[in-house]
Amino acid sequence: MSQKRKATTDAGAEKPSKKPNLTFEKKADGWLQEQVLQQRAAKKEMKFNKKRLRFLTDTQKLKQGAEGVLYWMNRDQRIQDNWALIHAQRLALKEALPLHVCFCLVVPKSKLSTYRHFSFLLKGLEEVSQELKTLGVEFHLLHGPPGDVLPGFVSDRSLGAVVTDFSPLREPLQWLEDVKKKLPKDIPFIQVDAHNIVPCWEASPKLEYAARTIRGKINKVLSEFLTEFPLVEKHPHTATRTAKQVDWVKELESLQVDKTVGETEWAKPGTKAGMAMLESFIDVRLKLFAAQRNDPNAAALSQLSPWIRFGQISAQRVALQVKKKGGESAAPFIEELVVRRELTDNFCYYNKKYDSVEGAYEWAQKTLKDHAKDKRPYVYTRDQLEKAKTHDKLWNGAQFQMVSEGKMHGFLRMYWAKKILEWTSSPGEALSIALYLNDRYSLDGQDPNGFVGCMWSICGIHDQGWAERPIFGKIRYMNYKGCQRKFDVARFEKKYCPKDL
Questions:
Q1: Which domain holds residue 411?
Q2: Given 285, 316, 350, which residue is the final one in a domain?
Q3: How close are the terminal C-alpha atoms of the chain, in Å?
């Protein structure tokens, strides 16, 4: 039955921490999910593109006498539209073996470990476990670093192969190395890039300088990789040993995390919620994206970054559905979703100093050094910035939006980061504070997009050398008056300038 319903929209659309009010066009609820199910079923027999995977071990043949195949879920926390799980299931079906899925829960002792992030993660995994149960697949929640707990789990269960997904960040890369060292030598270890549309190693074998240098490489092969997904179906081979039951409520309550940074109301975790957000974007906001995406007061953004960051929804699925919808907003949105987003994975994968001033280009490091002694009318501590206690009401509003809603409007992110550079004693301190605030409060933090966003704003990553973008916000539209020319700053300040943070 068609009915009016409310859409979750830009975090800047209504009152802080409240679910924004936006009325949908009349359309049957869940139309997207039904359409997608039909698309997957139609592609049931499609071949798996082997360019999406690579072997991390010399052994490539499944271990004889194995009792199952394991998908070690890490970055991509979903069942459908997941190339890593698709490959693991096909491997298991070929050998007539049970399929297992595990996730290794690691909770660092850090102020970046917040209830906001881990609640989103665990509630998403609970949905994953429930869906796997209906498919006859065992889900295992392991506790501890993968190198410590996964190899023993593989041996204990006599699993014959391990498939995992891809992340370019140093900690997951170290986990891979730790697992690889301890896995039995006769177990093939396979990695599938299920996060990028064009696998990172296929897009480019080296660090790319800018979007203009990677765009052609991605677009050249995009049609090969931007395909529909086959269905992850009910698995016919049942494991003789079942997984330990997970008490999800107890898991969440027992987490040693910072609970002062709580859940957000607008962003509900899990693939179902992510697909509902995608549906609302296509129905309502996509048509506004091209013209109004740089207006923090407009409800014109997809709002999908938390679900993409946690792998609860596939960027490839988003691109497919937006492309089907078409319109003038499709091209600029796909440019951001594909080229710009995959450029961030490229940067983090090929530049090991992706979160350091030392990872910036030479010209940028020189520019930052030359201006390090510039007079600063205002200097703030990290604590003052975290509490939005500056003289700048627009900056305070952007910071409060991120703290209260777990999301800052994309247009304000550069302004926000550049002002931190202007108001701190050194570029290194500025970058450290920007990353800390983003990673602590943003639901899409601790992700390549966040690292590169801060590096771009503060260190000029992916800019032309002549642009000198790192010089304290001296860039068109990135000062206060420039923002006033682009959108109604007073309206944003009225809504978000914190009364008490």
A1: 356-496
A2: 350
A3: 43
